[in-house]
Amino acid sequence: MAISATSRVDRPAISLEPPLGILGAVAAGLFVAGLVISTVQAGGSPFPSPFGDAGEALEYFRDHAAAVRTGAVLQFASAIPLALYVAGAAARVRRFAAGFAPALAAVGGTLAVGFLILSGVVSWVLTVPEVVTEPAVVRALHTLAFLCGGPGNVMSTGLLIAGLALAALPQRRLAPWLLGVGLVIAVVAMCTTAALTVTAAAFLLPVARFGGMAWLIAVGFLLPRS
Question: Which domain holds residue 131?
């Protein structure tokens, strides 16, 4: 018996959309694992701040190349599930919103992934023996890794969060309190740009970063598919 065109059209399509909540958790887990494992490998010494003493930072990169490389690899790896999350979340919000907000989420998420990858790559370069013999090169790469993985990534993640929250706001696709928290986190993430000129503003980076990770995981599980 021939299959009618109507039956072919009405047949439900198989969804290939990734599980956003799981992807968000994996991305956050890999990033945090990079921080923890590299710190343990370095004997409890955390990744140095570019605002600190240049000599101490140079000594850290010389003595703890394995720890730096572990952190760089896991940071790079965390960008993979984050990229899948961004693609899935942007596609999902386009089903019930159009215009600026979905585009903002896509652009912000793409930038966040790009900055995270670049920070991981630059950090990996800091483990090359020939590089750590040049203090000026180490200082430049160290600062670049911080700017990409710090203000660059966090600010871009704020754009992603703002886009998702604004897309879900008109039709209340998420709980009002969750939308409010997301917009607050997005504003704080934007304010981390001040760290480029005011060192004291750097304390906003972990607030926005880890708050944003938690928000994205929650939204990944709660954002409706249709």
Answer: 19-222
- Which amino acid, 207? V
Q: What is the pLDDT of residues 138-147, one digit of tens each?
A: 999 999 999 9
DSSP state string for 139-195? HHHHHHHHHIIIIIHHHHHHHHHHHHHHHHTTTT-S-HHHHHHHHHHHHHHHHGGGG
CA pair distance 121, 111, nearest whole angstrom: 15
Distances (CA, A) of 32 to 2, 8, 89, 124, 148: 56, 47, 22, 17, 17
- Largest Cα span, the chain: 80
CA distances from 196 to 102, 119, 136, 222 (A): 28, 16, 20, 34
Whole-structure pTM value: 0.88
Number of domains forming the structure of the chain: 1
65-81 tens-digit pLDDT: 999 999 999 999 999 99
* Terminal C-alpha separation, the chain: 34
Alpha-carbon distance of 160 to 180, in angstroms, equals 15
Identify whether 68 is part of a domain.
yes
